[in-house]
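Bump. Still looking for Glycosyl transferase structure tokens.
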Amino acid sequence: MRYGYFDDARREYVITRPDTPVPWINYLGTDEYFGIVSNTAGGYSWHLDARLRRLTRYRYNNVPGDSGGRYLYLRDDASGEYWSPSWQPVRTPLDSYECRHGLSYTAISSSRAGIATETVYFVPRGENHEVWRLSVTNTRERAAEVSVFSSVEFALWDAQDDTTNFQRNYSTGEVEVVGGVIYHKTEYRERRDHFAYFACSEPLAGFETQREAFLGPYRGFHEPLGVERGELGNSIAHGWSPHGAHHVRLALQPGETREVVFLLGYWANPKDAKFEATGVVNKAGVKPVIEKWLDPQTVADALADLRSYWEDLLGVLHVDTPDRDTNRMVSIWNTYQCMVTFNMSRSVSSYETGISRGMGFRDSCQDLLGSVQLDGPRARQRIIDLAATQFASGGAYHQYQPLTKTGNDAIGSGFNDDPLWLVLGVAAYLKETGDTSILDETVSFSDGGEATLYGHLERSVQYTLDRTGPHGLPLIGRADWNDCLNLNCFSETPGESFQTTENREGGVAESVFIAGLFTLAARELAGIAALAGREAEAESYRADAEKMAAITAEHGWDGEWFLRAYDHFGNPVGSGKNAEAQIFLEPQGMCVMAGIGLTDAANPASGTLAERALSSVRERLTTPHGIMLLQPAFTTYHVELGEISSYPPGYKENASVFCHTNPWVMIAAALTGDGDAAYDYYRRINPSAREAIGDVHKCEPYVYAQMIAGRDAPTHGEAKNSWLTGTAAWNYVAITQWILGIRPELGGLRVDPVIPSSWPGFTATRRFRDATYQITVRRAGTLDSGIAEGASVTVNGERVIGTLLPLAPAGDTVRVEVVLPS
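Sorry for the wait, here they are.
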């Protein structure tokens, strides 16, 4: 079943019924102020840090799942009937409903009883507030008296404390109302510098700032007493639950439309601002801001500016292929999701509270792969922030808080793959921008001392070289990419489990996956060293890569696929010798991406190691819904393997289609020249291609999900954990750089497509280093049938050798034609 449709011309997904299988959300904000909004206006807002600067309250595990949000209520003052124009929370049936999720904005339209509304939610560029622009139209043949009520529930800033420390928080909430503006000032008498505000462009008939006064006793947001009776009591919150509610009365003639602007924002006074009096908000700085943004014309201009911003970003790469789903994902939604994951890492979504996780080191490094082309300056700063969470050993905090930029001590370090991802992130930045000056930036270590960014990269690689195990493979530490594969969590006594820091990080379990990642990272660092004129070091890193590749081929190969690891006791993991989890996806993709086994094999007659590994993936792991992470699924808990075996079969790390890893196999297939397989895998998890099975997939059809339930699960094909996933960046890399073959490299832009045999070709426009490349790819025809293998490339009509394009001067437009063998 479909719950909506793509409007590609407007770059929107249009939801045509409110009862989607799960809340289908969008993100608001592009800079420092962000929010989540669902198709029924559920969600919440924060400034910079979703834990420490939470503006509005949200209850996870609530029913419905997106209860609490940016709610508006309409009331027919003649009949007393009221409803929600976003359907929730009242859920009164609507005569019409439509939600348009756009790029950093959402518009919800509906009508009931002859009153039509449209509410547009967005965060203006460069501002620390959100706008709700409500249009109300009387489509009746008679005049209408309508009341509009707004509602937000303020969080007490620290979301963790807000949800746990009730004995204190019920006495600390404070609100002040001046000139119709509601100021939420909890913490203000302590900090004296920050507050939230909630303003309305129309004169108020009343307001409430205490939740209980707005809702009434034993009532929820679906039946607020203030809305029911059509009158608010002007309460001022002192303790309990600070709230923001406005009441506006509108007298509408037949056909008349009125616009009301609501403004919810965050404000921090300068540190030297005068503090007026104990507990009184210094409002001088924010007053002009509120007055400006309550003007409808300012709002209209800002919305146009937001659209222009995304128009420019999406102009970095636009493709026209024979497949509509590919076009809309590459040119619109996958790009958009890459930018959202860059902003959020994995910290805050419908599945992450924003409390327990900050910015992930591994996660953010991978997110750079899909976003460096969109915002080079912010990518540069992100790299510096990430490097600053490293230790002098080369290890790194696994997560850091976006507000404080400090590492998360509760999670700590010891995930031995983390440092290597920094090399890949920096390599992606250098390939896209050519900005080698970043390598000379001095960056501190978390535990003291400093080095250039290049020095941080050196320590990232050395960290692995200093930590190898009995087979010469890298030690896994607490875990590698798969946080749930805990091979140093073990018991010497059967049936007894224990877990200590020493055992997690000091064990001898080895990771074949990290071996592949190290090989790839060492080769990338060799290229960076050569670019920096350090040829001797470049040669040393090439040698390190070749040595690890050889060790992997010798000790990481199980006969028909790559092993996953060796556990603490030296037993193979991901081997045909195992009863369960005989083959894992991760090393098959990563090792081939690193070039291991691409050109040689123990038995050449049976194919290279890469070809055999990918054949095993096709035979043992592939389903109609994507490639599973492992097979056979674990059916019992294995203490020596840790959390991975705690999930039921087919879910998460226990044999789901973990979408994040699928693109590694797409890239591996492209490296072997198999465009049909690469594109087939791409299509299987493409959310747009899955739109027609909305009742099975359940998650949003416009963004990738982290996982899809695997073959062993009773809900095979059901997606979970949408939006914030490395799937976004890696799928973007797989389709754009390896299947379409438009690939930034240190030396320039390469165009080397490996497309499916059914495609006659495609066109693309790519901005790269301030030049524009207009690319046409086609199959050879009768006029050029002599092309037997490889591609023929012309630039502005001149044939070039190879597929790496000469760098064009800034501002130039370059015509590129690639002819592929027929």
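DSSP finds 21 helices and 41 strands in the chain.

Edit: fixed formatting.
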